[in-house]
Description:
The complex is a heterodimer of chains A (428) and B (292). Chain A is of the alpha+beta class and 428 residues long. Chain A is built from 17 helices and eleven strands.
Amino acid sequence: xxxxxxxxxxxxxxxxxxxxxxxxxxxxxxxxxxxxxxxxxxxxxxxxxxxxxxxxxxxxxxxxxxxxxxxxxxxxxxxxxxxxxxxxxxxxxxxxxxxxxxxxxxxxxxxxxxxxxxxxxxxxxxxxxxxxxxxxxxxxxxxxxxxxxxxxxxxxxxxxxxxxxxxxxxxxxxxxxxxxxxxxxxxxxxxxxxxxxxxxxxxxxxxxxxxxxxxxxxxxxxxxxxxxxxxxxxxxxxxxxxxxxxxxxxxxxxxxxxxxxxxxxxxxxxxxxxxxxxxxxxxxxxxxxxxxxxxxxxxxxxxxxxxxxxxxxxxxxxxxxxxxxxxxxxxxxxxxxxxxxxxxxxxxxxxxxxxxxxxxxxxxxxxxxxxxxxxxxxxxxxxxxxxxxxxxxxxxxxxxxxxxxxxxxxxxxxxxxxxxxxxxxxxx
Amino acid sequence: xxxxxxxxxxxxxxxxxxxxxxxxxxxxxxxxxxxxxxxxxxxxxxxxxxxxxxxxxxxxxxxxxxxxxxxxxxxxxxxxxxxxxxxxxxxxxxxxxxxxxxxxxxxxxxxxxxxxxxxxxxxxxxxxxxxxxxxxxxxxxxxxxxxxxxxxxxxxxxxxxxxxxxxxxxxxxxxxxxxxxxxxxxxxxxxxxxxxxxxxxxxxxxxxxxxxxxxxxxxxxxxxxxxxxxxxxxxxxxxxxxxxxxxxxxxxxxxxxxxxxxxxxxxxxxxxxxxxxxxxxxxxxxxxxxxx
Lengths: 428, 292
C-alpha cells in the first residue's frame, strides 16, 4: 500500500515538473483574461537607457505590462537572431540596427510590415533604409554621423585652428602628440573600426561596396586605409588596434587624447561630469574634415525600432512602438544630446538652446553632404567587417607603410564578393 | 507471492527515467544535432533552407589557416596554463599542509579567485592591463622596466590571458591536491624517516609519486576546461587584437553568432569535442599507470 502511495507521489512530482515547462502554452490561451504583456528588447545605448526609465509611465498610461531586457549591441543581434531563427520567440518590440541586421531580418521575414505608421516627420533616406520592395519595416530612432571631438584647450595652447581637411588633421595630430597625450585616435579594433574609417574612405574617393560588389581595393580606398593607419599608428594611443569607442572614451576622458573621430551620438557621454576630468567647455565637436576628393562623411540610421513578425500581441506592440518613437520622447532624447532622426526636433527652440552648437552645425553639414551607409550593406556584414578589419589592423601596425596592403585589400575584396555570392546579393 | 503491479515490475526503468530524459534532451540530442549540422551548409544569411553537403565543410575548415592558428592556440593555451597551474597548485597545497599561524585566513584568501565570476575577472584584469591607464604598466614604469602592451599587443596577448587563467584556477588544483594529501597513509613516511631520508627525497620519492593519481585527476578536470576556455577570452579581448587570441571555442562562436555560418561552426565544434575526448582518455590512461 505504501509502495503504491510512494510511486503515485513520484509520478505526480514528475508531472508537476513538466507543468513548469508547459506554462508558455497555457498563457497564450488565457491572453484575453490577463492584462496585456509585451516583451521588449532594448540596446545598451543612451536612448535605450532613456526608454527603460520611462517605461513605468507607459505602463501606467496604457495598462500594458512591459517585460524589458537590455543588451549590448552585438549581443542583442545575436540574441534576436537566435530566437527568431527558432521560430518560437516571444519578443514583441525591439531596437534594431538597419545597417547591421536589417537586410538579414528582412530576408528572413522577421519584421512586421508597418503600413499604418506616420513617417512624415522623418527624412526620406532614413525611412528608405528600412524598406524592402516598398514596404516599411523599421521606424528610425537615432541618427549618427562622424564628427571630430577635440580638446579646445590643447588646440588653443598649441595655437592650432580646428582642422578642416585631412592635411590639417595630420599636422595638428603631429603637433599635439606630446607630454603623454596621444595626438589622434580613431577605432582601431578591426571590425569596430570599419564604420569610423568609412568616412575617410569616402572622402578619399572610395567606397566599400558599389553596385553589388566590393570596391575597397581601389587606389582611392587603399590611400584612405594607409592614411588611417598612418595617423593611428604614429599618433594614436598604445594598443589602438584593440580599442573601440568604449575603450577610447575613458582614455579621452582621462585627458590623454587630443582629437578623436567617432560617431556624434557619444557627445553626451563624453562630457558626463561623473565620468570625465575634462570640463565641458574644453571639449569641442567639429564637422568631419574633408578629404582630397569629397566631403561625404557617413550619416546613418544607427538604431531603429521594429515589431517582430511572429508577435502575439500586435496591438499592444504597436502602441508601444508609437509611444517609444513619439515626438515627445524624441525631444527628450535631444535634450540629453542623443541625436534623434525626426526632423521637427532639430528645429525645436528648446533643443537648440541646450545642444552643443558644434554638434548642431556638424549635423547640418552631414545632412547636406553625407552618405547613408557606414559599412558594406549586406547580410553577411559581420564577416565582411572582420575581413576589412584585418586590413585596417595591418595598416595601423605598419603606420600605413606596409607594401602588403593593396594585395591584402584585393584578397579581402574577393572574399567579400564570395560572401555576397553565397547570400545571393552579388552583382558583377 | 507479492502482487506485482506495473510499477513494481518496471521500477528499475521508472526511477532513472527523469535523469535519463534530462541527459538525452540536454546532452545527447545537442551533440548529435551538431554532428548532423556539420554535414550541412546551413547559414542564416542566405535565406535558403539547409542542404546536406557531406564532408565539404570539413575539407574547407581543415584547409583554413585561421582554423589552424586557433587550433595551435588552443593547445598552447592549455599546456601553458595547466602545467604552471599543476606545479604551482601542488606547491601551494604542500605549503598549506603544514601548520602555521593565520593558516585559515591564508587558505580563504588563496581560494577567492576561484569563486569570482569570469566576466568580472575579465573586466578587472582588462583595467589592470590597459597600456595607458592600467596599474600594471604604472608599476612597471615605477620599477624602471619597459612597459608592455599586455592584451592589446598580438605578441603578448596569449601569455597575458594565460596569466589570468593561472590566477583564477590554481586554487582549484590546490584544493584537489590538499584533499589527496589528507588521504595519504603515514606508513611510508615513518619507514622513510627511520631509513634516514632527507625532506627532498621524501618529497620527490614518496609524496609526489603517491599524489600523482590525485594530481592527474586535477589535471584532467582543468585541461578539459582549458581546452574549451571561452569566458575570459571573450570578456577580455573577444579574440583580438585581430584574431590573435582566438581559440577553437571563440572561433566557433564567431562563426555561429557573428557570421551565422552554422554548418562551418558545427564542424569546428565536432573537432573540439573529439580533441577533448581523446585528451581526457589519454590522461586517464596515464593516471592508471601511476596507480600501483
